[in-house]
Amino acid sequence: xxxxxxxxxxxxxxxxxxxxxxxxxxxxxxxxxxxxxxxxxxxxxxxxxxxxxxxxxxxxxxxxxxxxxxxxxxxxxxxxxxxxxxxxxxxxxxxxxxxxxxxxxxxxxxxxxxxxxxxxxxxxxxxxxxxxxxxxxxxxxxxxxxxxxxxxxxxxxxxxxxxxxxxxxxxxxxxxxxxxxxxxxxxxxxxxxxxxxxxxxxxxxxxxxxxxxxxxxxxxxxxxxxxxxxxxxxxxxxxxxxxxxxxxxxxxxxxxxxxxxxxxxxxxxxxxxxxxx
Length: 277
Fold this sequence. Notes:
The chain is an alpha/beta fold. The protein folds into two domains: 3-163, Globin-like (Orthogonal Bundle), CATH 1.10.490; 169-276, STAS domain (Transcription Regulator spoIIAA), CATH 3.30.750. The chain is built from eleven helices and five strands; from the N terminus they run αααααααββαβαβαβα. The chain has helices at 3-12, 15-24, 40-62, 68-81, 83-86, 90-115, 121-165, 186-202, 220-235, 247-255, 269-276, and strands spanning 169-170, 175-181, 207-214, 239-243, 264-266.
């Protein structure tokens, strides 16, 4: 029997024991992440995920010609997208990869102790190299998948935040208010411009009140884009009124040469609404 086949049999008989030993040795003192969970369902899922890794790993020695990453592709994708693992610091996950690698290297030592005389040093060394190479490939691919999925989820969350942070709220059938709060960078200002125009058209708004009282600071580029909103609204037939302009924003606008001559401005949103009535 070839050394890889013998090692496969040797490991496959120990997969569940590997999982149980791994879980028992986990550092559960840190409350952050999946490894410290007290939820029995989460613990069971974690063990099943770990055991599935062992099964795939062992199969690499049963079929030495198969593609390593192809064998682990589905497992890596599932772990990278798993909500419990996404809430776990990445360095904790990588730590467990390396601890599992140490488990396999310990198994290899035991295998060599029991069967080392049946094989050459080169054959035994090839087993060690395959273990280390496989873990290197899997860890690298996991880190890549985890990062990409985290970025996609972050972008989706940011999109939701942007939508919630620049809503056009209808006051009646033809009047709306756009309350802006917090810091506005160039990216958010661009989104506000696009979203505001689209919502005004969709909701048939004829008069939009833009309240800036919650905006503390903007740079010159953002101030320019905010006043572009007014010009763009005017082009689509929407009258606009600005309220709550802070002195800093007004000063920036003046420095840009923005004229308030044709812009309706009030000190507060309450006053603007009262004047509308």
